[in-house]
Amino acid sequence: MSLAEIPSRLDVALKSADRGVIVLAVDGLSSDVAKQSWLSASLSTLSSTVPSTSATAWLTALTGVPADVHRVPGTVYRNGSGLVHAINGTPAIPDLPTVLERHGATVLARELDLLEGTWAQALLRGCTRIPAPLRHKLTAQAEDPPLLVANVVADLDKALPDARFLWTYVNIDDHVHRHGYDESVHEAMLRLDAHASRWAAQGWTVVAHSDHGLVPVDPDPELVEAWDAIVREECVIPSGGAGRTRWLYPKADRLEAVFDRVATALGSTATVHHAADLGLPQPEAGPVVAVAASPEFPISDPSAKYEHGGLSRDEIDVPFAVWHAVQ
Q1: Shared domain check, 144 and 8
Q2: Residue 292's CB: how many other CB atoms inside 10 A?
Q3: What whole-number distance in Å separates Cα of residue 34 and Cα of residue 31?
């Protein structure tokens, strides 16, 4: 069961819904925290994408297709002769219909609404977009998960009378990167559960899901330097990837040598793969891929306390919850 099933599940929910469907797209929520806090929901587990990262996962969740079709394999990947940042850049993304576009959803995309790149356009195309709060307000809310939920709920309550299909982005990911799944995250998700139950009592079918979980990280500076040295000495462009999955673009005659060098340098902190073995599209993804196997893995942002992108169950398992409308 994967994120690619979400469009078909929403199709079914919309056909049978009484008043309508509300979707809570919670960025960065782990399956374990959902099990502890979404106590009133019918809860199941889906698998995220490879890598387990927002750029890839949200596109798959809304289009129903994998990365080798939508061509966004991670956060940073090859685009022509250089690299592109999927969320902030303007890579070419195939024109794929989303479940939101097909059903004319009203979206409260919040942070995503402020993005100008092609990735956000691919997600939100054809929707009725409710303008996002000012950026400084979104930043303040992201630092305080209960405040974030209070604002999401207030905005949804205002939008409900005029819509049948609503989708809102709930960004706890920024907070978890810095603080982990602390008490404030649990409290925020408990409050979201209570409001979802309230909407269900009013006749709405409420669906919530995540894109990935996060795990603690403690990158080893020596491994960071070893990775950077391989990039400098063996590769044609800088490395790409997403968090705890990173890939390299070796010189044409150095692919297997680089594979072996990465495996030796990272040792037990990573597993090393050929991109094709992970289903990653090329040339976007580099042919040599390292996936974290320990907290010491050399992520690209050493300041992060929690990260995602890897293949551990805590990153890959994502919750899918339904609060059924009360008849």
Answers
A1: yes
A2: 28
A3: 5
Shared domain for 68 and 200, answered yes or no, is yes
Give the contacts of 3 (CB within 8 A, at least 6 positions apart): 46, 47, 48, 49, 57, 60, 61, 209, 211, 318
| Strands, E assignment, 13-145 | 20-27, 42-47, 76-79, 82-85, 106-108, 128-129
Q: Supply φ then ψ for residue 299, to 5 degrees.
A: -70, 160
What range defines the domain where residue 80 resides? 3-215+312-323
Q: In whole angstroms, give the CA distance from residue 293 to residue 245.
A: 10
Residues 136 and 225 grouped into a single domain: no
Per-residue pLDDT tens digits for 224-238: 999 999 999 999 999
Number of H helices, E strands in the chain: 13, 15
pLDDT tens figures, 178-201 = 999 999 999 999 999 999 999 999
Together in a domain, 28 and 129: yes
Residue 66: what pLDDT? 96
Residues 11 and 133 in one domain: yes
Residue 327 has pLDDT above 80, yes or no: no
What is the rounded CA–CA span in Å between residue 65 and residue 229? 36
251 vs 214: CA distance, rounded Å: 33
| Tens digit of each residue's pLDDT (9 = 90 or more) over 106-159 | 999 999 999 999 999 999 999 999 999 999 999 999 999 999 999 999 999 999
